[in-house]
């Protein structure tokens, strides 16, 4: 029977993949969320319509289905080869959570009180300046707590990548478990603890942002 | 590999059979999560600091770690746990796993509902000499629950979309059927597209309905708090 | 001499490090009407919330009908902290009307009034309904019984709150600035109801109020509270017309000029 440190070492072989997928997905989904969120509030009807379509498709289906779909359809159907399944995973996770997060971007922008826009017009700011200096800084503060929550969701979602063959924590855990059946409890508890350790900074960030969001936001 | 409409059409009735299992499992998991959510609320209200500190962190732990791993734990690890371990069929394991995971979310919803009830309501019910159980039953819960209905509705949709995780421990619903079909004929994209369409077809209208509800309850709630 | 129905014995109350009540001694006789005046923050609300068991004293004893509110004796005859059952057995004699009404928004006016008698006193529902309708008639709301609280004006809400408290037939009724959240033109209708109650009855009342004329009219005794101590008390005329202490004079002057 192996000790906890031994099993930990085996599992930690998957840390790299988990971290790569996590960091890339966090970045890409943030970019997608900002672009899609701003598109949703733009004046261009075509752009808003297209973004809405994207958001509803990805929110309306299930991430695990999307992940499988991408991993089979990209190479098979569209003959797109991203070089590594890591990119397939990142793309699926980011498109999915980008869609969810674009809604908080949109919601935050819309929730900045109209008085702020009116005041900026009165000061003769351009539409772009208005967004850049007045609306977005306030909106960001409001959306940060929810953003933090979504980062935790993304972390949890990275556990799905083993299903398309990527070698993360869970992949090594499953392999080890299949040959050491009685040690399954240790294996999965350790994996959960690793995920929780990765989640802690994100939980801390979210709580801090909840406090920040309560300050410095105009009400009414 | 090319897209085949024939395969697409052929897999619709096959996947449709799985839809009922997906829906049934969704509802079972959801009911479990709704009821178990009260457990966390109850634990966090026990007036012993270390106890509710402990339960708060347990809930936080469950909430911020992957439900997939939790499913594997319940399905593969639980049976070999000494003394208390039992072997569960995939269905029950999925209900427990997803149900417990989401109960940590429903409990937050309940908590926000309870906290939204004005302090004066507690005081007035004390002044009228209601017992603790009566305060909850007649005064607090009837006000705390209705505003949470849209949020709870959202979780039903989210649950629906998480249920395919159960295919990984062998629950034969839509996703599992699609993957089986793929493995047999090496045609994955069409059945997976059918699965995605079924999800979309059900969750998009539900989401619209929920946002309607949300507006309705928000209005009602505003009116209430504005006038006490 | 008559036994007091309520006794505060050397009551201290602190919130954190701040001592809000600094030794309150107060006896209230059955049927006595006591007006409690004093500057904002002097501890008036805290005094009556203590009696309603919404706050627990830091030290001192409160007795209702000679029974210790926060302590009881266990089987061995030793003093232990009161449990919920003990509190509820005493609380039945006390009613309270709040500054912000605290009506139950999800129940109709009639249901608000019927709730406690049916579920706490377990009285027959039809009897309770009859009494509630009479009570609501007395406060002038017989045409509003099926409405919800948010369909009423502030003055009407406060009259419902009074009817609701009266349904439990308390021996002591507490009023915490019940008119201060109301629009000025609605104050009169609420005071009128209290006046009728005061004239009618054998119910003791503690009223926190800023309506000096009203206090003069109905109170048997006026207490002036300042920074957590009862600074002066006595006959309403003495206190309000010929105050002795400089602080009370100051308070009354400032109060009348502020209005
Ligand atoms: N729950 C509480 N926590 C902390 N301080 C309180 C609390 N309730 C009252 N206080 C403080 O106690 C003092 C007296 O309050 P209160 O009895 O409401 O005065 P009054 O009714 O005479 O205006 C005030 O300084 C108030 O800030
Ligand atoms: Mg007060």
Give an overview in words.
The complex is a heterotrimer of chains A (about 220), B (about 230) and C (about 260). By secondary structure, chain A is mainly α. Chain A has a single domain, classed as MetI-like fold (Orthogonal Bundle). In chain A, about 80% of the residues lie in helices and about 0% in strands. Chain A has nine helices and no strands. Chain A is flat, with a radius of gyration of 21 Å. The termini of chain A are far apart. With about 230 residues, chain B is an all-alpha fold. Chain B has a single domain, classed as MetI-like fold. The N and C termini of chain B lie far apart (about 65 Å). In chain C, about 35% of the residues lie in helices and about 25% in strands. Chain C has helices at about 45-50, 85-90, 110-120, 125-140, 155-165, 185-200, 210-220, 235-240, 245-259; strands at about 5-15, 20-30, 35, 60-65, 65-70, 70-75, 80, 95, 170-175, 205-210, 220-225, 230-235. In chain C, strands 8-9-10-3-11-12 form a six-stranded mixed β-sheet, sandwiched between helices. In chain C, helix 3 packs across helix 4 (about 125-140), helix 3 (about 110-120) runs parallel beside helix 5 (about 155-165) and helix 5 (about 155-165) packs parallel to helix 6 (about 185-200). The longest helix of chain C has 17 residues, at about 185-200. The mean pLDDT of chain C is about 90. The interface of A and B includes residues 188 and 202 of A. Magnesium ion (MG) binds near residues 44 and 177 of chain C. The site of adenosine-5'-diphosphate has 10 residues of chain C, from helix 1.
Layout of secondary structure:
The complex is a heterotrimer of chains A (about 220), B (about 230) and C (about 260).
Chain A: H1 4-12, H2 15-40, H3 45-60, H4 63-76, H5 85-111, H6 114-122, H7 127-157, H8 169-179, H9 184-214
Chain B: H1 5-44, H2 49-63, H3 67-77, H4 90-115, H5 119-127, H6 132-144, H7 149-162, H8 174-185, H9 189-227
Helix pairs in contact in B: 1-4, 1-7, 1-8, 1-9, 2-4, 3-4, 4-6, 4-7, 7-9, 8-9
Chain C: E1 6-15, E2 18-28, E3 33-37, H1 44-51, E4 59-64, E5 67-68, E6 71-73, E7 79-81, H2 84-91, E8 94-97, H3 109-119, H4 125-138, H5 154-166, E9 172-176, H6 184-200, E10 204-208, H7 212-218, E11 221-226, E12 229-234, H8 236-241, H9 246-258
Parallel strand pairs in C: 3-10, 3-11, 8-9, 9-10
Antiparallel strand pairs in C: 1-2, 1-4, 4-5, 6-7, 11-12
Helix pairs in contact in C: 3-4, 3-5, 4-5, 5-6
The structure holds adenosine-5'-diphosphate (ADP) and magnesium ion.
Keywords (chain B): Amino-acid transport, Cell membrane, Membrane, Transmembrane, Transmembrane helix, Transport
Family (chain B): Belongs to the binding-protein-dependent transport system permease family.
InterPro entries (chain B): AA_ABC_transptr_permease_3TM, ArtM/GltK/GlnP/TcyL/YhdX-like, Ectoine_EhuD, MetI-like, MetI-like_sf
